[in-house]
Amino acid sequence: MTQKLAGKVAIITGASTGIGAATAITLAEEGAYVAIAARRADKLNEVAQKIEASGGKVLQVITDVTDEAQVQNLIAKTKETFGRIDILVNNAGIAIAGQIANANTDDWRKMINVNIFGVLYATHAVLPILLEQKSGHIVNVSSVAGRTVRAGIGLYNLTKWGVNAFSESLRLEVTPQNIRVTVVEPGMVNTEIDQHISDPVAYEKSQALRKSITPLEAEDVANAIAYAVSQPERVDINEILIRPTTQY
Ligand code: NDP
């Protein structure tokens, strides 16, 4: 590895599995000190062990991103441990597919709390630090579903379109102060994400779609994030849309 991120400190939410875990490992390989956050301690520990085995430096902070106080603790602990924060990857997210009619509205609240409030709380808590440093980079993991819409994933569409709109508005606010904002929009990725779908019809539909293409691997998205955050400070990659080749 090129160690392009030597001396940088990165926080990755939802780093216990999937895209977040791969991103933490990739950024650590590039030399960043990483703070990894999620709810499952055992999974987080597995990721931390991989990073440490390759000589990386990692801080584990058990965090539920829907709880503002826990998110504030994540940001404070990272600053206290590593002295600064350069990169925040707002990656934690869930996707519960299903029709709008007769939906379980608890699923809506869960998705809005993780996909929207998780991003807002972490951004709000980290911004004063980045503004004081006069440098920093926020990467928000959105989705192709934040640019397009499909029947049967209306609430997920709502959250990811929200993330895209918020990211662009945030970018316009902070870009004069040398803070970079990137939104990353993956297509279908081979991760655990479908496990939250309780509606059997929606689950089967999602699985069928997955089997009809060759999905991305989590590492493909991690590499895109690493590309964005490794650019010289004058370069702000605003948006990365990354689809499996056979997904339209
Ligand atoms: P995974 O299910 O593998 O990972 C989701 C991560 O989010 C886990 O680490 C999970 O950790 C964490 N998470 C969920 N809820 C919370 C919470 N309340 N607090 C803290 N962490 C939480 O899925 P992916 O890697 O696929 O998803 C990562 C991101 O990528 C999401 O934002 C998703 O919307 C987006 N995405 C995924 C696509 C795909 O096809 N897989 C396509 C496009 C975008 P834990 O359960 O331990 O808390």
Quick tags:
248 residues; alpha/beta; Rossmann fold; 7-stranded parallel sheet; 7 helices; 7 strands; 46% helix; binds NADPH dihydro-nicotinamide-adenine-dinucleotide phosphate
Q: Would you mind describing this structure in some detail?
A:
The structure is a single chain. The chain has a seven-stranded parallel β-sheet, with helices on both faces. The chain is of the alpha/beta class. It has one domain (9-242): 3-Layer(aba) Sandwich (Rossmann fold), CATH 3.40.50. Helix 1 packs parallel to helix 2, helix 1 (18-29) packs across helix 7 (218-229) and helix 3 (68-82) packs parallel to helix 4. It has helices at 18-29, 41-53, 68-82, 105-133, 154-174, 200-211, 218-229, and strands at 9-13, 33-38, 58-62, 87-90, 136-141, 179-186, 239-242. It starts with 8 loop residues before the first strand and ends in a 6-residue tail after the last strand. It is built from seven helices and seven strands, in the order βαβαβαβαβαβααβ. The chain binds NADPH dihydro-nicotinamide-adenine-dinucleotide phosphate. The site of NADPH dihydro-nicotinamide-adenine-dinucleotide phosphate has 31 residues, from helix 1.
Short description, anyone?
It comes from Pseudanabaena yagii GIHE-NHR1. This protein has helices at 18-29, 41-53, 68-82, 105-133, 154-174, 200-211, 218-229; strands at 9-13, 33-38, 58-62, 87-90, 136-141, 179-186, 239-242. With 248 residues, it is α/β, with parallel strands linked by helices.
Reconstruct the topology from this structure:
Blueprint: E1 9-13, H1 18-29, E2 33-38, H2 41-53, E3 58-62, H3 68-82, E4 87-90, H4 105-133, E5 136-141, H5 154-174, E6 179-186, H6 200-211, H7 218-229, E7 239-242
Parallel strand pairs: 1-2, 1-4, 2-3, 4-5, 5-6, 6-7
The chain binds NADPH dihydro-nicotinamide-adenine-dinucleotide phosphate (NDP).
